[in-house]
Amino acid sequence: AAITGIYTLPDIGLILEKLMGHGYRSNYTRRRFRTRYATMLHQPNTLRQLRRTAVSTTLKPIDDTFQYPYNELLIWAVLTKRHQMALFFWERGEEAMAKVAYKLNKALAHEADDDELEIEVAAELASYAEQFRELGLGVLEQCYRENDDKTCQLLTYELKNWSDWTCLSLAVISHHQEFVAHKCCQMILNDLWMGGMSIRHYLNWKVIASILFFPLVLRIEFKSAEELKLQPKTHEEHLATQNDSDPDDDDDDDDDDDDDDNGTENYPSGILSNDHTQHYITDENQSKKSSKLNNDRSVEFIYENKHIDNEPIEMVTFNKTTNDHGQTSFINLKQSLSTSVQQTDDINDSNIDTSKKTDELPMSNENSPIKTLSSSSSIPITQRFYEFYNAPITKFWYNAIFYVFFLFLFTYMVLVRTPTKPSIPEYIVTIYLASQALDTIREICTNSSPRFIRRLTLYFSDFVHVCDSLALLAYGIGFILRFNANTLHISRVLYCLDVSYWWIHLLTYISVHKSLGPYIHIAAQNLIDLFNFIIIILIVLVSFGVSRQAIKYPSESWTWRSVKEIFLEPYFMIYGEVYAGSIDPPCLESEPDAPQCMPFHWVTPITMTAYLIFCNILLLSILIATFNNTYIRISKSSDQVWKYHRYYIVLKYEAKPMLPPPLILFSHIFLLVKIIIRYCRGKKFKVDHGLKLFLSEKEVAEIHDFEEEQIDEYFAMKDREKKNTTADQIALTSER
C-alpha cells in the first residue's frame, strides 16, 4: 500500500486504531472482515456480474458488513478533511459519532502539530474538533431535557462498531471533561458507584458500619430486581443474568478474531456476523416523528409480572398534557397491562394525582436515571450480600481500611530494630504486598489486548502504575537482601524508602473525596510546571557550582566528593544558607586554623551574588507566579476535573475482585479456577470490565430513533435562535 499509494480498508483500520488509541480495535482489522474483504477484491467486477446480481430471483441475506453506512462515510470525510460533508453524515448517522469525530479530529490535529510545516492544518483540524465537541454536548443536553432515562441508555449501551465501547467511554478517552461532568453522566456514575444499593443519606457511614458489622447489610435498602436489570453491568455479570441461554454462547463470537498480526485489541466483532446484526429498513419520515411540534410528551411506565421471573417487561404509554390550571392529565393509549397489576379500566382525560403511590402507578421519574419500578419485587438475602460486597463503594472502603492497617504495620516494622529473622509484622506486610503484586499481574493479563507487549504499554501508560511497580520491586529486593547479614542494612534502607512511597500512595484514596480530590490534581499539575523550571535552575546551579569549587580547591584531586560539592552548597543557597564564612574567608595569616585564601578568591562572592539574584529573586518568583496561575486556572474547573477522573475511579473498583489485599489471594484462586474450567470446556474467557447496557436489536433501534429525533430538534432550535437573532438585528437597524 505504501508503494502503490492505494490504501485498503485494513490500512484505514490501522490508522483509526492509532488515532483512537486506548486499545481501540477497528472492525477493518479483524480477521473475519479481512477475509471477506480479500474475497471481494478477487471477485470479477464486470457489468455482467452486476446485472446478474441485480436481476437475481433468489435474494441473498442482506450483507450487514456496513450496518451504518453513514458512519463509515463520516470516517472517510474526517480523514480526508471534508468537514462540511462530515457534518452532513453525522446529522444522518447512528451511534455516538460526534465523540468519534471529535477524537479523530483532535488526534489528527495533534499529528499535524508535530509537523512544523502543517501548523495551519493543525489549527484547522482543532477547530473542527471543537465544533464536534460543542455538537455532542448540545445534543446531550437536548436529549437530557427530553427524556433522562433514554439519555442514560444512549450513553451506556454497547456500541458494537466501536470495540464494544459506550458513548460515555468514548467521551472519556477523548478527554471531553465537560461532557463527562454533565449531570446525566454523573447520575450514571452515582448509580454505578453505589452498585445495587439504594442509599440516599449517610452513604459512607452506612457502608463502613456494614463492613465492620455485616448483619447491618440487612438494614440497607437495595434496588429491586427490575432496577438491577436496567443498570449497566460488565460482560460477566450480563452472562450471569441470562437464565434462558447458555452463558458461553457469547464467547464463540471471538474465536475467529484472535489475530496478533496487527497488534490490536481483541474485542468481539459483532458487526460482521448475521447472528448478531439485522438491517432496519424504516421510513425516514416516519422515524423522525413530529411529536415535538406540540406540547404533548410520552411518559413510559414499566410493569412486570412479579409472579414470573422471566416475564418480559411490557411497555405502557400515556400521553401527558397540561390543562389551563397547570394540572397534569394522562390519556391511556394502551390498556393491555399485565394480569398481575391491579389496574383501573377507565383512564381517560381525568386528572391523576401525581402523588399517587408508585406501586399503584409506577411512573418514570424524570430526575432519576433509572425508571421507578414496583418495590415489591425485593431481591433475596443472598443477592443482597452479593450486591453489597460487589458494589464499587464497598470495595473502595474495604481496600482503604486494609490499606491503613498495612501502613501502620509497615511503619511499626521500620521504626523498630530489624531482627535477624523476619518478624510476624514483616510477614504480614510481605503477604500484603505480594498479593498487591499478583493483582497487578491480574490487571495486565486481563487487559483486552491480544499481545502482551501492548498490554504492558497500556498498563504502564499510567504514571501511578509505574511508581507502584517500582515500589513493589524495591520491597521484593529488600526482602531478599534481609536474609543476608551483610546486606541487612541495605534491606532496611529499602524498607524505609518504600514505606515513604506507600504513605504518599494514600493520596489515591483521598482523591475520591469531592473536596480534597481537586487539590491533589492541582498539586500534580504544579509538579509538571516545577519540572520545567528545575531544568533551568539546574543549569544555573551547575554553572556557579563548578566555578566556586574550582576556585576554592585549585589543587584538588579527582574524587566523586568534588562532584557532590558542586551541587550541595549551591543548592542550599537557594533556601537562604549562603555559607558566608567559607565563601569569603578573612585570610588572616595569624590564625592557621582559618580557611586558606586561594588566588582570586574574591571572584566567588561576585558570582554568588549573580547566582542568587537569578535563582532566588527571578526564577523562584516566576515559579510562584506560575503556581498561582495554575491554581487559579484549575480551581475554576476543579469540580469538572474531579467528575471526569471519577469515571476512572468507578471503573477501577468495579473491576477489582471482591476481597481486598491480602484476602484478594482467594479471589485470584477463584478467578484462575474459573478460567481453567472455561478453557477445559473449550470456551474462551472474555475479558471486558466496561460497564454497559446490553440491549436487544429492537431496543437499540428505539434508542437510535430517539437520538435522531433529538438531533433534528437540536438543529431546529438552533435555526430558531439564529432567525430570532437575525430578526432582532434587522429590527434594531430599522429603528436606527
Describe what you observe in this structure.
The protein has 736 residues and is mostly helical. Among the domains are: 289-378, no CATH class; 517-641, no CATH class. The chain is built from 29 helices and three strands. The protein has a three-stranded antiparallel sheet, with no helix packed on it. α17 (392-415) packs across α27 (638-655). 26% of the residues are buried.
Write a concise synopsis of the structure shown.
The protein is mainly α and 736 residues long. The protein has helices spanning 9-20, 31-41, 47-54, 69-79, 83-92, 97-114, 119-146, 148-156, 167-173, 177-180, 183-194, 203-212, 225-229, 235-240, 284-287, 381-390, 392-415, 424-445, 452-459, 463-481, 488-504, 507-510, 517-552, 560-573, 580-583, 603-636, 638-655, 664-680, 697-735, and strands spanning 297-303, 314-322, 328-332.
Element layout with pairings:
Layout lengths: L8 H12 L10 H11 L5 H8 L14 H11 L3 H10 L4 H18 L4 H28 L1 H9 L10 H7 L3 H4 L2 H12 L8 H10 L12 H5 L5 H6 L43 H4 L9 E7 L10 E9 L5 E5 L48 H10 L1 H24 L8 H22 L6 H8 L3 H19 L6 H17 L2 H4 L6 H36 L7 H14 L6 H4 L19 H34 L1 H18 L8 H17 L16 H39 L1
